[in-house]
Known about the structure:
By secondary structure, this protein is mostly helical.
Amino acid sequence: MGVISGALPQLEVAFDLSQRQQEMVVSFLYLGGGLGAAAGGTLCDMAGRRWCILFTDVVFIVGATILCLSQNLTEILVGRVVVGFAVAVSGIADVSYLHEIAPPEWRGSIVSVNEACISLGFLLAYLAGYVLSKDGIQDGWRIMFGLSAIIAIIQFIGMWGMPESPVWLRLKGRHRESMHVLRSIHGDMPVSSFIADHHDDVSQEKKTDVIARKKSDEVNSTSSSRLNIQLPDPNMESGSFTPYHSINDDASNKPSNDGRGTLARPVMIAYTDNSRSEHGFVGRLYEQWSRAIQIHHRQMYIALFLSVAQQLCGQTNVLNYAPHIFSDIGLASQSSLGSTLLIGVVKFITTVLVIWKIEYIGRRNLLLGGMTVITISLALLVFDFAGIENGSDGEVNDDANDDANDDDEVNAALKQSVGKEVMAVIGVMGIVLGYSASFGPLTWLLTSELFPTDIRGRALGISTIVTYLCASLVSSTFLTSQEKFGIAMPFATYGIITAIGTVFVYLAVPDTGGKNTEEIRQDLDQMWWWDSSSNSRQTVAARRRGETGQYV
């Protein structure tokens, strides 16, 4: 993804691209990402995490080959769409896979390794752009795109020998395979806590799903449903489940509970409802999503907020248009590429440090701190670029030198120019640092932790769709908005949005570290934003009635 920053200036010369065409080259990757995200969630849930990753490696290699051999703008755009499709599906599968193989106490760090690898990829791409953009190197952009295919080949080879997600296998009823995979990953370490953690997520989801269905049936009065409750077989060697007892919809037959409104023993609740089979696939799919929205509406709002806010903070444009941004302040071409390389270093180091300390600092604290840094950095850029006309590329400094009548005025103009360059670099680095400490590792980690196993892939898919659509929007309007409204205007817009988002995080987003989905729901109940919502209170009351046994 980061290769476009170094390749874009060369593509501009090679194909005589206008500003609008440059925006298309950047944004078409995100359009492809939107398409990939639309299919990726369902594909990930149906085919499995491992096979999705292998599939996307092949698609990425095809896209990179198209880019490397392109002879015109159309072929460049097609290649960008194909690569974007692969990147989006891979992002969904990667996060799901890492989440489901990681033990609970290391999950935050392990899932965040995905972002560290992305950051390393950006650093390598910026390094390649810096080296291949020097004078005398012909068609350096082709080499940049070709190198990205090599990375995909390496991942394909490494992933071929990896097992499937044990959680996905268990969800599909392949319990023996799941236990075998767990032992191959964790060795002789006990896996009981790992099983209990994910089993609890699934149990709580099934239980809440029953509540929602029961409520719907009471309203429509058209269902003759039956609940089948199963307890785990004491013989966990096979991971199988045996029936315990069944409960009709009649309220006189209730499961026992421990007095706290929760079932005394772990349960798997299977729901059978033959009355809905007549609706067909589309009808069942619609009902599944309707129930998911009803049950997890707060989690969905947070996931969508993270998907939108991480793009509207401006970091995407900083990465893609870094040489252009630095040239606006007067830096020479090679100096701009050198500063871009520094961006990759900052991004990678920050991400590694966050992974190291994420469990200690906490997700919520990192998110709030990172967004605050982004807001301050955007304010610096607004102040720095205010008054500079688009396309000046340091002409203000030249004019100052031409109009200077003595050495003092020349020195003052030079100092002002250097000061603006330093402030621009600090502002850009601050955006990258803040993003790498917050949205970068936390958007997908929080999204994966907010949702239970059986809808995690689809939830990540929707979040990814929104992410890429927003990325396409901001990257396709950056240069033209600077031309129409001034260089500082996009940064001012991003700053306002990020400042508002910081307030939302403070009021609405809990820390999800080391918690299952039910514990996260309880924390959401305590957040001011949701506690003040009358709709939320009604939902909480309905859920609490269900937990005390009033739903059967």
